[in-house]
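Follow-up to my post from last week.
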Amino acid sequence: MRYIPNSPAEREALLAAVGAASIDDLFATVPRAVYRTEPPGLPPPASEIEVRRDLGRVAAKNAHLGEWTSFLGAGLYSHHAPAFVSQLLLRGEFLTSYTPYQPEVSQGTLTAIWEFQTHIALLTGMDVANASMYEGASAFVEAVLMAERLTKKKTKVVVSAGLHPEYRQCLRTYLVNFPFTIVEVPLGKDGATEAGALAAAVDDDTFAVCVQSPNVFGVVEGWKAAADAAHAHGALAIGVVNEMFSLAVLEAPGASGVDIACGEAASFGLAPSFGGPLVGFLACRDAGKRQIPGRLAGRATDAGGRSGFCLTLSTREQHIRREKATSNICTNQGLFALAATMTLSVLGKHGLRETAVQCLSKAEYLKAGIRALPGPFSVAFAGKTFNEFALHCGVPVHEVLRRAEAKKILAGVPYARLEPAASAYRDLLLVAVTERTPRSGLDALLDTLRSFS
Amino acid sequence: MSDHGTLTPTEPLVRADARLDQRRRFGSLFDAPRAGRVGVVLPPLDVPEADPAALYGKAHRPGVEGEVEASEVDVVRHFTRLSQMNFSIDTALYSLGSCTMKHNPRINEEIARLAGFNDAHPYAPVHLAQGNLELMWRLEEALKVLTGFARVTLQPSAGANGELAGALMIRAAHVKAGNARKHVLVPDSAHGTNPATAHFAGYSVVELASSRRGTLELSELEAKLTEDVAALMVTVPNTLGVFEEHILEVAKLVHAKGAYLYLDGANFNAFVGKVRPADMGVDVMHMNLHKTFSTPHGGGGPGAGPVGVGASLVPFLPVPTVERAGDAFRLDFDRPDSIGKMRAFYGNFGVLVRALTYILSYGHSIHEVAENAVLNANYLRKRLEPFYHLKYDAPSYHEIVFSDHRQAAMGVHNIDIAKRLMDFGFHPPTMSFPLIVPGALMIEPTESEGKDELDAFADAMIAIAKECETSPGIVTSAPHTTPIGRLDEAGAAREASRPGNFAPVLRAPVR
Amino acid sequence: MSVYPDDRRYSRSHEWIRVDGDVGTIGISDHAQKELGDVVFVEMPDVGEIFDAGQEFGTIESVKAVSELFLPVAGEILEVNKVLTDEPGAVNEDPHGDGWLVKIKLSSDAEMDTLFNAADYEKFVEEEAKA
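User reply:
Got it. Predicted complex:
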């Protein structure tokens, strides 16, 4: 096999050196009843030529964003990925290294982690960010568990219905065996969390109040109402962001009293890759740093006074604290946190802002176009939005999708796909744009919608 | 500089590029401000420009203060230089035991980057994502063949996340049967994730002391295996690289008490294609695709942690599953007993593509992975045994756990040996566990090393063992050839611990 | 000459307690700080918290290890050593002096007799090392 360097003769030499007559001797302690001498029931080995042909055909069956005009978002947005990023990611020193446990031979990875942490802290307005999480939904769950540890002996978490349904679903999965209750606060008519209901839901037994902005309908939420409601009862406010470019034009959660910020940072140069790998983040105020899950890189110096980076505060983690660890999380999203870091570095202050303004402008253009349509469509909520909004369809949503597909347009994500049980929202289509969407694409979608009138 | 004892400098004292290095000696892009530089140019805005300040009012933020300003050249050079400070499997043998640092074939990267896979949105209509569902279905089928399980979920984001999914399924099954039970048994040699996972699934952890051979002690298991035990979590081969010879008896005992047998599949690479875990009586197992199936570790992720289950746990799998009807594939969310979702979307799909590519490349020869991994480890054991203490001497599989027992007598510890190994051009072994071997040096060569590389590594380890006797100062002051010396990790942790000190990031952020 | 002062008692979990009236000062032994290595953080209880004998009252961390701290006798926390917040290394530098952890008001001194004196503690440490 091409990935095993030793020749048959070399293998014989190794066998002779270890004093084994055959490979089977090395497996002698495997119970004979389960030891297989027949090869597994897989096809014959495939050469690169055959693998390319086989999986190339499989890949070709998918609609991809290079050939389609896409308005798909709902937690995962397709922004510009600078060309150098995917090329540098292929450098073996990044691709094929492991967790930087040995700082002397891992300064590359460690410096990049530290830069990632700093970017996230600056964007969210927080003091400390970790080395990344798997993705947004599980990062959110970890944030909730962290809030519980920081407040102690409370049992209730209040969650806005504007949180992405998959995030709320994950929370239920992970919390099922803890004695906690989850209370959902509905949205008001403007599409934002209803402030009165939120304040009423929070009590002294509440440890976390969770709001996403822009929320799943794209509506911008104010962080302060959630933070005030939380702090009035000794709870922590958790701010979820899964479209990070919004933070170049909208107030940082850390600037408005949020205690823990978390979510998805895939907007920074990651390909959607059918939903993973992505890159979650988690950031908090200084007071929370000893309860933050996952890896952290910090600055250190060597005996010669040279400055470098190492993993730090590791005693929080599972390999040391075992069942008392802050999380069972082990890996971070190393390579994709690096991709996000590279993208953020090259975008920089100006690129972040320009991208955000373009996203906003294109979404506003599309909304204005929809409002001007005579037909059965409207912008569902009056709340302010960033680059995504909910389109109310007076015709069946699948009809809209189908007619758009005929023009190679992916018109949006039917909300019913995210939360089939939410019947009040079954006529909504989530429509997202990015700086990659040209005006011709926006106009083509408007034309499709106009064809229903 | 620290005192290197009798070490002779191997490099000229003043390198020609030393002055340039001096100028470049900044830690990060944030330390080298270049105001006004721009790295990305977008197309001109082709719609009327919105005014965020007017639109958002008080909620408007004028920009992200403190962010980097750099050109593409600055950024490319910065990250290229960073890469040059990393050790990687592409360079040399990476002995980090339990992490399975094996060759990462580049065809896997190419296939994962095909636009149909890489540029596909997870909420694309299912009829426009048939290729992606087919890929997931085919990977599940291949993993079923290799494990013998009834179904495999591909959703968990990494091994630890797969462990949690497995533990949650076990808990859900017990709850459905009327009693959640209280404890999970974990051997003292286990990975740290095992007890942490059991805790997050709502169980208390009961530790099992290992036998003198480093394996499960049946009497210890029987004593602690009560009706309150939900599951036993074992690792095969365990973290000492030793196969649980009595695994069939263990499975019988566990099942007799109505508990589940959980297998930590971190070491599946030691027996893939040779033993199907389901045949051993295992009910649940997670697989680390970045270990057994060679997806790149990427400096610490992403992983992927599919979980295989026996028929009794199938109803509890996370949603959605991928189902096939004729030539069409669909996502099935209608599974009332499901534990729910472990993450948004369907899993680390890009990692799944790489793993299937790898499995197809090996095909029915995949047992050669296990055979050669075990052969290579045994060869290193043979060569190093005269020089390093082996606390548990049962037959080794894919890794060997030596210790610094002999060298410690001369004042040299595992950390010193590890650091010295860097000077010889190899990545150090794992030292942080198993906890039952003090001063551990856990070495896993994997199947992707040839005899010459194994010999070079063994020669280096032997040279260090001799240095420990003749000139221990060289070892205890190592490394001498890396971009940076041993860091004051205690100082870093103290710094980061101090209240009000934001050591893990650049500075107090501008709000 | 023992490194362990004989003006105090020692526990099997390597804490020491020195009693002055009904106030006990508690720290970890020189042996414990050596085993732990460079101390980087001490998690302290709140003043006013009450603990039973043998109950965990905090944790002490080095770079790669965490140890629980157990109160050798029952009592109420009167004071925590604030110096350790900024300079946790004091535990390494002067474990029996400036590196003390907490002061408590003893609930009773009944448990004092169950603790080692300096000589017996030294023997206990030696035996532990052999085991």
